[in-house]
Amino acid sequence: MKHYLLLAASITVLGLSACKKNDADSPAATSTMAGTEDTGMAAGGATDPAMAPDVAASSPAQTFANDAAASDTFEIESSKLAQDKAQSSKVKAFAAQMIKAHTDSTAKLKAAAAKSSPAITPVPQLNATQQQALDDLNAKSGADFDTAYIQAQTQAHQMTLDKLKAYSASGENAPLKAFATTLIPTVTAHLNMAKGL
To answer: Is 51 within the bounds of a domain?
Structure first.
């Protein structure tokens, strides 16, 4: 798992570096995600590199908020796929729960970020690993989809739980730290549900 997390972090850094270059090449490119709806994580807006902030200058709080927003985006979008492609009724029911839970989580994240000083706007851009997993899921159907979805949900919830625990323990932004602490039991429950599918 540590190797996977290191790989995911490396891919994220590379992807975010590319985003920084795009921002530098396009001065008109600015983040407009503040007006996005709670579920406003449609793949087009969520993965457009021009929407990414200058991550090299991001604070740890902004980085955490972006990671949490991207996690919600992945959960919502992959679970929407499950509503259409899954074969198992249990997988479809789990996916419906994930859409609701992560829509609620997005609203809570935005509220916590708005209370920050200065206020933070979470950018729900998927990292390269998340986008690849979403693309892989989109190419599958039936029982193959179910297996891949369960695996993706298990890995994604484990990574999210690790980040929440880390920020809860050492984060410096009080509203985001409270958000992380509050969300740990929910994400733990989701992880256990995914493992039980």
So the answer is: no
